[in-house]
Amino acid sequence: MEKALVLTPPAKPVFHPVPMACGYYVAQFMLAFRGKRLRSLIPQNFREALTDGPIWSVELVKLLSESGEPARVVCYGAGSEYSRRMFLLDQLQKRKPVAILVRAKLLSLHWFVVCGIEGPDLLIYDPRTRYGGPSSSRWGLP
């Protein structure tokens, strides 16, 4: 059995009042791991988030890079299950969380962050309110 590999969470939790702005919250969360702050403004309401549109991979890289944390885009789905797991382990051992963009429903995209691996399980930060907010069984934890 593999030893658990978990990054220490940021000292100050990242909360997410605007679900449509998940890319911004993911960037904020990833920077918090490195003791840095997001230098971009986060949409403050649903209308602002819709106007901004989704944060694509290159835009997330730009948000992170402009905030002092170099980043790159990797086509994660292209490799085997083993190579994907090894990539995650390598990044986490370097204390670098990994942001992943997924298709959550037919027409919606969603960002989350892999923060650790414990056996076969991925430990993630998901900026959707229902996972990090009051409805969570462990409220306040990302």
Q: What does the secondary structure layout of this molecule look like, with pairings?
A:
Elements: E1 5-6, H1 22-33, H2 46-52, H3 57-66, H4 81-93, E2 98-103, E3 109-118, E4 121-125, H5 129-132
Antiparallel strand pairs: 1-3, 2-3, 3-4
Describe this structure in words.
This protein is an alpha+beta fold and 142 residues long. The protein is built from five helices and four strands; from the N terminus they run E-H-H-H-H-E-E-E-H. Strands 1, 2, 3 and 4 form a four-stranded antiparallel β-sheet that branches. It starts with a strand and ends in a 10-residue tail after the last helix.
Q: What's the quick description here?
A:
It is built from 5 helices and 4 strands; from the N terminus they run βααααβββα. By secondary structure, the chain is an alpha+beta fold. Strands 1, 2, 3 and 4 form a 4-stranded antiparallel beta sheet that branches.
- What is the overall silhouette? globular
Distance between the termini: 25 Å
Which residues sit in consecutive blocks of at least 5 with pLDDT less than 50?
130-142
Figure out the total of helices: 5
The amount of helix comes to 25-40%
